Amino acid sequence: xxxxxxxxxxxxxxxxxxxxxxxxxxxxxxxxxxxxxxxxxxxxxxxxxxxxxxxxxxxxxxxxxxxxxxxxxxxxxxxxxxxxxxxxxxxxxxxxxxxxxxxxxxxxxxxxxxxxxxxxxxxxxxxxxxxxxxxxxxxxxxxxxxxxxxxxxxxxxxxxxxxxxxxxxxxxxxxxxxxxxxxxxxxxxxxxxxxxxxxxxxxxxxxxxxxxxxxxxxxxxxxxxxxxxxxxxxxxxxxxxxxxxxxxxxxxxxxxxxxxxxxxxxxxxxxxxxxxxxxxxxxxxxxxxxxxxxxxxxxxxxxxxxxxxxxxxxxxxxxxxxxxxxxxxxxxxxxxxxxxxxxxxxxxxxxx
Amino acid sequence: xxxxxxxxxxxxxxxxxxxxxxxxxxxxxxxxxxxxxxxxxxxxxxxxxxxxxxxxxxxxxxxxxxxxxxxxxxxxxxxxxxxxxxxxxxxxxxxxxxxxxxxxxxxxxxxxxxxxxxxxxxxxxxxxxxxxxxxxxxxxxxxxxxxxxxxxxxxxxxxxxxxxxxxxxxxxxxxxxxxxxxxxxxxxxxxxxxxxxxxxxxxxxxxxxxxxxxxxxxxxxxxxxxxxxxxxxxxxxxxxxxxxxxxxxxxxxxxxxxxxxxxxxxxxxxxxxxxx
Lengths: 352, 276
What we know:
Chain A: The complex is composed of two ATP-binding proteins (PotA), two transmembrane proteins (PotB and PotC) and a solute-binding protein (PotD). Chain A is α+β, with helices and mostly antiparallel strands. Chain A is built from eight helices and 19 strands.
């Protein structure tokens, strides 16, 4: 049963359409991430859910109530902004209490709820501080407590970690996820960082040019990208253009080498299709397993500590692969011819 | 000390002397009313003149009224323009600069033509009406300063995000303006107010042409009639302006949670101070 639904939502500014026929349904308590490059429309969709933008077409419902035209202050939504947006003139406790005061809650209720929220984010000892006296990470936690205090139906997170440094980013995202699970609140998270989206979400919406290219679990998005864009944006997949030789048996040609795919191809002979291969799915060691092999010339080899990243040229394509470092394995030399072995099942056919 | 620092110091001293020497000379002259001795006789004479106190309080009230009017016009307008019509901002900047470009004498004659005895709204026929016109004139003169300080205040505040944050928490427009925007603009509004005060307090052209008993015309009158009192008045009005500047400093630097009284360093804007 979906709790938050967006049906064919579009948004245009004059001739410029930033969101096109966007469909999504989010279950109660689900954590959804919108992932995409800047300008893909992810923030616009979030702002339509919040009510800061009115869709040019389409409908948004929360708990079976149509909120498409409802004002933001009547939607019962909590939101955390990239720039924290704490009220500078109020203490931490007053910031957290703001939503409850506006709603007309009584003093005792407010005090109890503020205490509970500050305990949740482990900042009870800073209740009387002002925002300017706190670090970015602390301010963002207060912003989260402020958003959660009035018990919103939906929590929106607009790139909440982007302004923080790398270490805080990781610890805060784990904290956000833990709190979200504990409260069971339906959450929409916007980010351009694929690692963030993969690590935190129940499902990810990969957005491109105002559309949802793919909606799926992090595992599906990473392992079975549906489009070329998803494949290139999420992870570091190799995209290899191949010529179809025999669609029925899955035979394709890369340069002068022919390999067989697992599936029947929905293309005719002579057509070009794109295959994706994850960099960690093959090996060039002697005796490596795999029913498929490609031989190429090494064009670069980088030692990255635990991983050795090598790129080789096969026909027109460059294929990059990662192998774990081991003392018995010397990184291949430039110009050396190596054979990469992998399973044909790891090759995915990508649509544009 | 490096040569460059000595050169810099000399330049600063020369520049400062342009202001300080005449000020000191005026001050010294104001103390010489009684022959052959230093005395505060000129100040005593100034304070004992009933006209001094009446014009002073008249100008103070007129200036305060101008502050209220220009704040009430500028704050909501600037907020709305920044939030909803950012494209209009260059136009706002142009309009609010006009009082600096058009000489006050032109503005006041324009007002006299518009609101003279034969107009639709004849403000000049009554004393109260003329007072209103003076206050409106002062509010006009203060526009460049009030707009700029309020606009700068909003710039540093990121009012759009704050407005959205308050809105999504359930706040109405009025709650947002009074509980979130205004309290955070306090420093900007106060510094605009003090600038307005220091401009309109000794203003001459408007007050003189509208024939109002204000402090500016009084200063000029005394300057023509007396020798030592004008010097004393000049020193007094300098002290008043300086006090306005100090108060601006205090309010501009005060952070919530720290009262200005607990921060005496703010009284000495030139002293080095620790920032929180």
